[in-house]
Structure formats: structure tokens, C-alpha cells
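=== RUN LOG ===
request id: a7f3
mode: sequence -> structure
chains: 1
length: 558
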Amino acid sequence: MDNRSETPKTRKSRTRPLTTLSLMLLALLLSLGVVFRIANLDQKIFWVDEVATAMRASGYTKAEVTAQLTDGSLHSPAELLAYQRLSPDRSFSQTLNALTRSPEHAPLYFLLTRFWMQAFGSTVGAIRSFSVLCSFLVLPCLVWLCQEVFRPCSPTPALAPIGSTAAALMAVSPFFVAYAQEARPYSFWLLTIVLCSGALLRAGRRNTWLSWAIYALTLLTSLYTSLLTVLLAVGQAVYVFTVQPHRSILRHYQWAIGVALVGFLPWVWVIWHQSDALTTNTTWMRTPIQPFAMIAIWLYSFAVLFFDVPVVAQWSWVALLQATIAAMVLTVMGIALYRMAQLPHRVGFFLAALCGPIPFTLILLDLIFQGQASASPRYLIPSQLGVLLAVAYCCAESGLPGYLQKSASETPVRLQRQWLVITAFLLGLSLISAWVNLNRSPDYQKAHNRHNPEIAALVNQAISPILVAEPSQTMNLLSLSHSLSPTVHIQLLPIEQMGTVLSSCQNYFVFNPSPQLVTKLHQIETLRVQQIYQPQLITNKDIHLSLAKTQFAACRAP
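=== RESULT ===
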């Protein structure tokens, strides 16, 4: 039967099975999202950033731990793990002190993590479960945010399906699944961004003191979760002053932003007084990176929303296929963002305020100072959220005939079918990527610590091994301690003492030696140094971990 001859009653009856099927699919995707987030939660690599979370929440500073371990004694992995667990002799004030020594990280998430550890324990799974909970809470909040964002361009019946589509896409997104399993602030930051953004739109619509107070509170919470929220707040300010002409709204907004900024002044004071520590702790951001690599990372940061693009050192037909799929994903995102520009200006300006400020600022700073701050996908979470909202709106058209389209002509129907195929394509990629990562972590997430299992396996299989390292490797050793056998002994030594200690008949391994240490050891004629592990590198400047084996001449078999 021709669609144009259908009555509203007939069309309604035809859409019921689709609605039921959509609800069943949504329930399935949300259930899979739960499985992906909790599967092997305590088995994946606990890398240095997560070590920093556990260590600071437990009341230890990096300098303190390094000083205690660099005493010339042999230490067991259990001793290193103790610095990552709550102890009765570490008070809440010591946690605050540890957090102020790292002012580049806003403190709220770490304080909440300490309370979480007090309630549920200090195991890897327990610490990470707080991020899992935050990622679960994001999904219903995302549905609400979609209702606020797309209210100007869609009738009320169409808003819930848009939010449901966004929730489904986020539930199985390999990027958001990966960070839901990490003991870092990013899932909690995403939650505060969603709440803050929805509260702003709601306050602008209702314009009551209570709604603006809620916005001020959510903004303050987000500021105390990530310093990058400052840039997001700037984008929101531009949005408000651009689309809100009413003086009462502007007056209420100025009051709310003032309250939030005043509430954030205590941490601004900490940043001011710990500026040297902030500069030292962010040195890596100022490390140069090749322009081509930078552009590739920018594109990669968005492609991983739906497709966990494998990082390979050499090109092959498989790598070419993967790059083609990633290009298709990026094309879909570009089309979705272009369509957002055709919607009412309130929607387009809001998404621009959400997506633009952080990458624009970080890229500009990198261009000026030749750094790589913008090369971290986790810093672009607000932009990734905005892109996901745009894609969700377009994908929702595939299941909403007559709601998002003003016409029932053949062109909208064909467009709906095209987006139905695109939706299936994105969901399929996401499910495959999340399934592949079920027993592993994405390459972009664990940095150089993704090679911990290989290094630990080499050390664990040795007889009475002693793993020695320089004090600069303290955090990497704390991460590696989760994979080491209890029979392994660990010793941190200054470079000056390495030659003397290694010149003995012990089963020594040198963990990630610096070029200076390698040079010094090769100068000792009675000592043989052999590199036994180095991962395959994408570029010569890749940060990585290595392992060397030493043998004293007097101990060699004749």
C-alpha cells in the first residue's frame, strides 16, 4: 500500500511494532553496556594515573613514596601495593595535603574516591567501581539533557526517542566504556558536564532563582572535578549572552556564575601557591610532537567514540580497511554536525559552546608552545559529548517518521532509511570494539603501562629475581607491582649506586633504564647488559617501558 494513501490510524498501527522493537533494542544495548563496564573490572592494567588516584586518596605523595622506597633495601610487591590502599595511620588531612601537591587535578573526585574506598575497600575493582557507577548515572541524565537541548526543534513526543538513541550510543561506545572502567575523574567529569549543561538550559527556560542556583551548584561541582571546566564555562557564557536577550535571564546568570567562581576561589589559591608543582607535573604537555601525528591523534580522538581504531606500526591491507572505516565514522560525524547548523540557532550555538572551547584552546596553546596537550582524547570529553548528541539526533530520524520530518514525501523516508543503516553501522562497530576490549584495554588508554604484562612475565619466570630501577621509575613500579609475583624483590637505587650493586652474582633485572644509566653500565667492563624487552614502537619518540638483564663477569659459566 502506498504510504501517501495511509490514514493516521493505519500509520500509527504500523509504527507500534517498530516502537516495541526499538524499546527491546534499547534494553538490549543498555544491558550490554552494563556487561561491558563490569566485565574483568579488576583484571585490566592499573596504570600510573590510576596509581596516582589510589596513592593520593590514601594520603601519600609521590615524593614521600619515592623517598621511602629509595633506601637501598629490597622491597616486595606487597609493600608497593600498600601505598595504594587506605591505612589507619593515614588521615583525611594527609589526603588533602597529597591533593594540594598536584594542583593540576581538581580535588573533588579524589576526595569522593577516598570515601568510596573507606566504604568498599581498596582493591582495584572497588576503586574502579565508583567510575562505573558514575557512567551508569550519565545515561538517564543524558536522556534529560537531550530533552533540554533539542526542545526548540522537536515536538515533545520526539524528545524521548532522541535521548534514548543517545543513551544507547553512549552505553556501547568503546571510548566511554573504557573510561567507565578507569579509576580517574573522567566518568565523573562527564556526569557533571551533562548535569551542568542541562541545568543551564533548564534555568534559561524557567528563569527562577532555584533553577539558577542548581546551575551554579552543578557548575561548581564540575569546576572542582576538572580545571578544563573553566573553558567550558567560557563557552556557556558566550552561549548565554548570544541567545538570551532578556535582562532578567542575564542578571540571574551573572549571579550564578559569580557564585560558582567565588566557590572555586579556594582551589585557585592552591594553584597560585603551588604553581611550580603545576608546571613540573605538566611538563609532558610541552613535549613536541610532529604535526602529522598531531592531526592523526585529533581525528583518532573522535573516531574512537564508535570504533576503537587499532594503532599499528606498519601499514597493511587490514590497516587500510580499518583506516577506511574510521574515515567513514568521521564522515558521519561531519554530516551530523553540518545538520546541527541547520537547526534553530539555540541548538547550534549550544553544541558549538559544548564542542568548541576546549579543543580550540588546547590546539592554540600547542601551536604556540609546540606541545601536545590537545593530543589526549580524555581532555576532549565535552566535544565528544557534543558530537554524540548530534549523531544521536540524526540517527533518531531512522525510527521517528513524522516526528523529526515535516514532510512525508519520499525524500524524508529515504533519508530515514539511510540513517537507519548508519545507526546499525555505528552500533555494530561499537559492539565489536567493546567486545574486542572485553579482556584488554584500548591502546590509547594505558599509555606505556600497557606493556606491564610482558615485562612482569619475564621477571616472574626467573629464579629469585631482583628488579632494580632508578627513583624516577617509582610510579611505573607501583603500577607494575600489580602484576609481579610475591617472590620478586624490588630495589630503587640512584644511578651512582647501580654499578656497585649490580656487580654481584644475583639475578638482576633493570627496569626501564634511562640513557644515562645505560651509558654508565656499559662503561663497566665486568658487567654485561642485555636488553630483553622493548615493545614495537610507532615512532622513535614513543614513550615506552623496557627491561634489561645484567650479568657480572665473575658469575658467568666457564
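=== NOTES ===
The chain is about 60% helix and 5% strand.
The CA atoms of residues 277 and 453 lie 31 Å apart.
=== END ===
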